[in-house]
Amino acid sequence: MAKFALRFLSVGLLLLPSFLRAQTVTTFEGIDASQVAHPELDVDPNGAIGTKQYMEWTNVYYQAYNKTTFAPVWSTPQAVTTPFEANGVTNCTNLNGGDGVILFDRLASRWVIAAHGTGPNYNYCVAVSNTDDLASSNLRWFTYAFPLNAALGTNAQGVTYYPDWPKIATWSDGYYVGFDLGDASNSFQEVGILACAFDRANMLIGATARPPQCFKNPNPVTGSFYLAHSPEPADVDGTTPPPPGNPEYFASIENPVNDGVTTTSNTFNLWQFHVDWSNPANSTFTRSTASAPVFTPGCYSATSPGNTFCIPEPSSATTGIKVDSVGDRFMFRFAYRNFGEYQSYLVSHTVQVGTAQRSQTGIRWYELRGNGIPTLYQSGTVRPDTTLYRFMPSIAQDQSGNAAVGYNVSSASVHPGIRASWWNLNGAFSPTELSLFNGAGDEENIDYWGDYSSMTVDPVGGCAFWYVTQYFNSNQTGSATTWQTRISNFSVPACGKANVSPTSIAFGAQATGTSSPAHKVILNNSQSVALSISSIAISGNNPGSFTQNNDCGSSVPAGGSCTINVTFTPAGSGSLSATLKVTDNATNSPQSVALSGSGVSSVTLSTTSITYGSVLINTSKTAAAVTMTNNMSAPLTGISIAGSGAPFSQTNNCGSSLAAGAQCKITITFSPTVVGTQSGRITITDSAPTSPQTIALKGSGVPPTSLNPTNLHFGLVTVGTHSAPMVTTVTNNTKVAISFSSLLVTGAQRGDFSQTNTCAGGLAAGAQCTVTVTFSPSVTGARSANVTLTDTASDSPQNIALFGTGK
Question: Alpha-carbon distance 168 to 175, whole Å?
């Protein structure tokens, strides 16, 4: 009954290498309409794989199958009311409302059956098995009926909202369920959601369950179409639970704005449910928004957003019936797996991939990762061709990080069939599509194609994907008597061996001589025999910068795992790399993890040398402050900063200690008092392994007025003749103009030298003038004099020494 209301990457199919083309797909018949007493048109097939059986649901019956022989556990499918009637739970003897879900609680190895009853007094009915073996003579069910009316609320007409499309999931601290609030007075339009947590701890032992904790959104319900409906709670795959205290998360679509025009969206919703069983007042349910590549929901119509019917069948041209894509919501399941190093969440839905409105559909998937609130890590769209419509997806991932999504396919020339695609989440997105089963008929009498399917992963070995959905072997034209379901399983070729996850670790920057937090590598043994380990070692370019410790011992049991903790302690600066290798008896030995990181000094300085250039004597120049950073994870202590003395001085705000990751500033000033090049050094001593750190200093003192050159040598000049002129450049190094009171040749032999100049009127700041001198000896022998410049500069007077010899 599930849906009352009217309601980045696209990669082609690749030619597979021979070893992948040999991939085995096993498929067998599930529950068919002919096997149940009262088959319904809306089938809602789903199921789960357990340790010993596969259990399937269709409205409103369940059956289990031996997962090796595929033989049914019971002679006929069981009515969903069977466990409740056996225990006298009268509130659950009318479950024709359907919307049932089968779970295998992998953390406890128990089966869970859940469905809601019919109104006006709604109950959510949950049965939990006392064993993982559905064929056991000791099988019993702990049964619970949870009243929903008070939590659901009522519409303006006083009619209780319908608990539509419930999805239940396993988390460490509860069974979590998301409902749509369907308004029975408005064609069961989705007007809000209800999220509830059920007391898993007591339900697993058959004890009295504490009252559910539920939250509604919006609260109060406004009656408007709710864009974020159909929340999917995260359901644990594998046997590694979420970290202690990790809240449950729900994901829901964000449909396009209902304005009659918009057809795309680029966000979805993430809900965090924190439950406190001891103090329910502390429980919270909060919403956040995640960005997504732009999408148009499958079969979306801006003028009729609840109408998601556009999947063609070969008979559609005659009957006018097109199948519901259920493109207006995320699909069952929101699959979670804890890899230790990171947590991964997967969800999928149907989107439009053709260019025309309500054209070809494909499968969009998202992976979220995070050890806190997860964020979008990657996404893609499965669309191997331009003809088939793909819809009704369900996604999961195996213990090696391979994702698989199952779905139905159909077109105007292809009867609805069953396919799946898989790819590795830690590699490039290149999906391999598998044909699981081809249909031979159409659904010609109704446009509801169930409302969901189910992909789960075998908890034993963690590799085999099991998928169930519906199909037709012949056209269904009358009552619901010809629908069939098919259960398929397959494994990704790389799984079922020994493998490590992740296959690479980038540690980032780490202070030399200090150690990073340990990163976890999980070694999984997916073989059916124990994994015998020969060695776990680090080799490669810089093995001394990486260390490991592990709890693996000499072997890992079949289906088991162990943890290797890797730490980065850089022995030097720069890029460093190595390889962690596990050598064992698996056929794919050794398994490798690429390790990389960057060593940075324990303490870094923004610069280790400062050149001041030319600075006027008796003035000061201050360079940009030097930033000192403590890159260590511990405080830097015992800080002492000293200079080499005049003409360099420093001030700082570093104090005697600097917190981990903190920075301080060192300001250094050059104050020359003499002319010429001068050098110095600032020395920083502290508790870092790289202490001391130094800053080299260099600058030149220049006078207020400089002469270049300061000596003019004319050599031998014949008496009574003139030498070639020689020039000295005068530079004003100050920031103010200078004026000259005199510029004369002086000395006893001044008569043998003459000068002209361009300095009349003075020199502006930074300007230059020239003094040109000629030597005219009057007698033989050595002759000398000076050009004396008298001016307003502080180093006045300045002299140019003159030398020549008469011959």
Answer: 7
For residue 115, give every residue at least 6 positions away whose Cβ sits within 8 Å of its Cβ, in sequence order, or none: 60, 80, 95, 97, 98, 99, 100, 101, 124, 125
Amino acid at 449: W
- pLDDT value of residue 802: 97
pLDDT tens digits, one per residue of 234-264: 999 999 999 999 999 999 999 999 999 999 9
- The answer to whether the bond into 163 is cis (omega within 30° of 0) is no
Both tokens of 175, joined, read 């069974």
**Amino acid identity, residue 696?**
A
DSSP-assigned letter for residue 132: S
556: helix, strand or coil = strand
**Residue 201 burial by Cβ neighbours in a 10 Å radius (0-12, 13-18, 19+):** middle
* Beta carbons of 746 and 790 less than 8 angstroms apart: no
Backbone φ and ψ of 445, nearest 5°? -110, 0
Q: Which pair of structure tokens corresponds to residue 260?
A: 């009659």
Omega cis (within 30) before 17: no
Is the Cβ–Cβ distance between 190 and 181 less than 8 Å? yes
What is residue 528's predicted lDDT score, i.e. its pLDDT? Answer: 63
Q: What is the pLDDT of residue 690?
A: 82
The torsion angles phi and psi of 424, rounded to 5 degrees, stand at -95, 130
SS (H, E, C) 117-185: CCCCCCEEEEEEECCCCCCCCCCCEEEEEEECHHHHCECCCCCECEEEEEEEEEECCEEEEEEEEEEHH
User: Of 291, 324, 292, 289, nearest to 307 (Cα)?
Assistant: 324
Q: Quote the CA–CA distance of 331 and 454 in Å, as a whole number.
A: 9
Coil, helix or strand at residue 660: coil
CB within 8 A of 625, min separation 6: which ones? 665, 666, 667
- Which residues of the chain register pLDDT less than 50? 1-22
The CA dihedral of 704, 709, 712, 713, to the nearest 10 degrees, is 150
Instruction: Give the span between the Cα atoms of 612 and 25, in whole angstroms.
Output: 75
Q: Which amino acid is at 396?
A: A
Task: Report the distance separating Cα 624 and Cα 527, nearest Å.
Answer: 63
Quote the pLDDT of residue 156: 93
- The whole-number pLDDT of residue 294 equals 97
HEC profile of 95-119: CCCCCCEEEEECCCCEEEEEEECCC
Q: 543 by DSSP, 3-state: which?
A: helix
Integer Cα distance of 382 and 765 in angstroms: 73
Q: φ, ψ for residue 33 (rounded to 5)?
A: -55, -35
Of how many residues is the chain composed?
807
DSSP string, 271-288: EEEE--SS-GGG-EEEEE
Q: 685: Cβ–Cβ under 8 A, 6 or more apart, which residues?
A: 638, 639, 640, 691, 692
Residue 154: DSSP 8-state: B
Cα separation of 701 and 709, whole Å? 17
Question: Tokens 């794989």, residue?
Answer: 49
**In 3D, which of 219, 148, 209, 220 has the Cα closest to residue 177?**
148
